[in-house]
Structure formats: C-alpha cells, structure tokens
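Most newcomers find our protein records easier to grasp once they have seen one. Read left to right, the backbone structure tokens trace the chain's path through space. Once this layout is familiar, the rest of the handout is easier to follow. The record below serves as our worked example for the rest of this section:


***
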Amino acid sequence: MNFWKKMKRSDWVFSTVLLSLYGFFANCRPAEPFLTPYLVGPKNISEEVVTNYLFPIWTYSYLAVLCPVFLLTDLLRYKPLIVTQGLFLVTNYIILCFATSLSALTYLQFNFAMVTSTEVAYFSYIYSVIPPERYQRATGYVRSAMLTGYTFGATLGQLLISLADTSYFHVNTITLGIMSVAFCISLGLPMPQQGMFFKKKVEVSTDTLNEVTDAFGGETDLAKQATGACCDWGNLKTSGKQMWESLKESYSSRRLVQWSLWWALATAGYGQVFNYVQLMWDHIEPSTTSSVYNGGVEAVCTLVGAAAAFSVGYIRVQWDVWGELSLGVFSAVGAGCVFLMGLTSNIWLCYAGYAIFKASYMFLITITMFQIAVNLSMECYALIFGINTFVALTLQTILTAIVVDTSTLGLDIVTQFLVYGGYYSTISVLFLLQGLYTICKHCRKSAEETKTDRPSSALKDKYGSEGQDLGSQSPPPQNIKEQLAL
C-alpha cells in the first residue's frame, strides 16, 4: 500500500505505469487475428459480404469520426476518450460473441471505428501528464507495452486454437474478459489539468478558490472564470488560432512535407493490406478446411517489425540526402511483397511476403516519425500526427470506395492485392526519382564547394608553408588575386 501511494505521488511513474498496463490489455486481443475465419465460419457470412460490404463500413466510419474525435481529445483532456475507447472495446466483443444479425455486425464496424479513432488520445495522453524530460522514457515504456500486449494476444490466440482446440467463440469471450480489465484500468488514469491547445485561461488553486468563495458568501466571477475558462468561446477561438499557426509553421518546411507525403501515401496502402490480408489467407487456404496460423504469423510479423524499427536508432545515415531514396527502395520491396501475396497460391509464401511487407513499413514509419518530430514542438507533432493520419485515411477511403465497394468496382480479393501492389509501385517510383534528384543535387553542390576551396589550398601550398603567416610572404601575382576575387 505504501509503495502504491508513493508511486501515485510521483510526477510521471504512476501515470506511465497505468497507461502502459492499459496499452498492454487493450492490445492483447487473442481473437483479432481470427476475425475473418470467425465471420465466414461460425457467423456464416460469405467472403464477398465481408470483403465488399462489412469491412468498407469500418473505413467510412473511421473517416467520419476521426476529426471530431481528434478535436474532442484535446478539449476534453484525453482521459474521457481513453475511457470511451475501453468501453467500445468491451461492446465490440459483446457484439462479436452474441450478435447474429447482419445489421448488428454492420454496427460492429462503426463501433470498431470509434476504437481506432480514439487511439490519438492514447498516444497524446502521456505528454500532458509528465514533464518533457521524461518523454523519451515514457514513450518507450508505453509503446513497448502495446507491442508486448499485441504479441502476447496473438500468440495466446494461436495456442488456444492450435493446442487447446478452443472454439472461435470462446476465444472471443476470453478477449472480452481482457477488454473488461483494460476498461477498468482506464478509469484509474489521472485526469490531466489541461490539453495542449485548449488550455485554461485562469489557473487558481483549490484553497484560494475556496477562500474567495467563503469570503464573498457564494460563487464569484473569479470562480466561474476558473471553472469554465476552458470552455468559453474566447478560449476556443484562441486555441483554434494557435492550432492554425502551428500548422503553418510545421508545413513551411519542404522536407517535412515530403516525409508527411510518404507517411500518408504508404499508411493508406498499409491499412488496406492489413485490413484484408486475413481474407487473402482464407482465400488461399480456407479456414473451414485447413489449419489456421493467423495468430502465430501476426506475432512473428510484429516482432520482426519491432526489431526493424528498433534498428533505426543504430543506423547512421545522412537522411537529408539518402532519406527519399530509402523510402523509394523500401516501398519497392513492399510492392513486391504485395504482388507476391496476390499471385501466390502457397500460404507460407503469402505469410513470408506479409512479414517482410510489415517489417519494411514499420522500419520506414519509424524513420519518418523521427524525422518529422525531431524539429517540432510536442504541440506541433500532435497536430501533424492528426493531419497525416486524416490524409492517410482519406486516401484509404478513396481506395476502398473505388476498389472494394460493391457500388463501384467491387473487385475480388486477389485483384485487390494486385491493385495495392501497383499503388505501392507508384509510391516507389515517385520517391526513387525524387531521391535520385536529391542525391545528384547534393553531389553537384559538394563538387562546387570542393572546386571553390581548391584555389585557396593551391595558394597556401605555393606561397605559405604550414605554420607560417601567409601575409609575411611576397604578394601573389595579379592574376591569382583576380581568381580569388572571383
């Protein structure tokens, strides 16, 4: 008990521990890698309905709620949105366990869109309750907890199905219990005093406020201002102006725009592959007649991707020069993997292609996020994160509406993956060309600087030896003076 009280009094340990625990349990979902087999198997929904009707609803709903949730996250100071996410995670698996109608499963897609849209609150919360000098350590703990939870959940799901012969229904009920634990943990998170943009105008201590109230025999204007300042129109207007200035400042950098462009383009394609890869696996080897290893594959892919992302911290590269070329090369690798997944009939080749694709994406997105964040304040970074996510989701929605939705092309899963491979190939060509241009420009600039330095070096060799004052030598001929002047 004394340890718990001591930890609670700490500036950052208590919040970080609770948020890490929440991240572990909220991402520990043993049933998630087996969603498609569960829908097309026990729920008896056709692959075409899942592909061309149910999954697109999630994309459209996610886009519809992302902006309001992003603004409410800061206005409501993060914790209410994290609690909301925990609640929707619980209802998500209640629906999966007990709903049978198509209309209920249609609502399930909107419910899960609320879960994914509130992730911005989880990622931003920690920066509002701890001092800046603890950002790096706290971020590492929180992300490690998420990764550990996801890997443990996928592994547990695979073990339950392969070794314990557990039904998909019971795996979902176990996941429901874990989500209930996550929801209970979210209730204990401390409430931040203010958001990053929507901040209180007047900050008055509780003791001072009580003294003023007692002295005047009721609620004063000061009390009203202190309790309602964060919600008045003037504060909203000021906060909106601050957000706009931060946005202009951030996107004034050409290099930041280029990294953000890759982030948005690649994340849209990754989202499509991630959402529909289970359908591809089920197409190659139907879950109703074959053993399913989705959980094991997801666990391995996450670990490989995490190792690739971790390696970024030990790579010493001049990213201003080689960054765009790296984006182009690894995007080409991703394109090849997506084409492999779409064209192969061997499930293990498809698994391998997905592992390499996910690792290359996590490697590049880590570099991209670091390059964007390195010269931005935390407020600007949170804003850029939200904007880039919104652009990526908009592109993903366009892809879904054209390629997947039955009201347009309504392509089968194999053709979809060929389209996604072509999409990544386009990204690769775009950044390869830009990267080659940047490298040529850098080499030309370096050559010009070397050429400019050469006359002074030659002059030193001819008229002054090392350790001697060049001014003590006889003056150089006029033609050399003219060269130096030029």
Remarks:
- Residues 14 and 53 are 43 Å apart (CA to CA).
- Confidence is low (pLDDT under 50) at residues 200-209, 215-232, 465-474, 476-486.
- The radius of gyration is 28 Å.
- The first helix runs from residue 2 to 9.
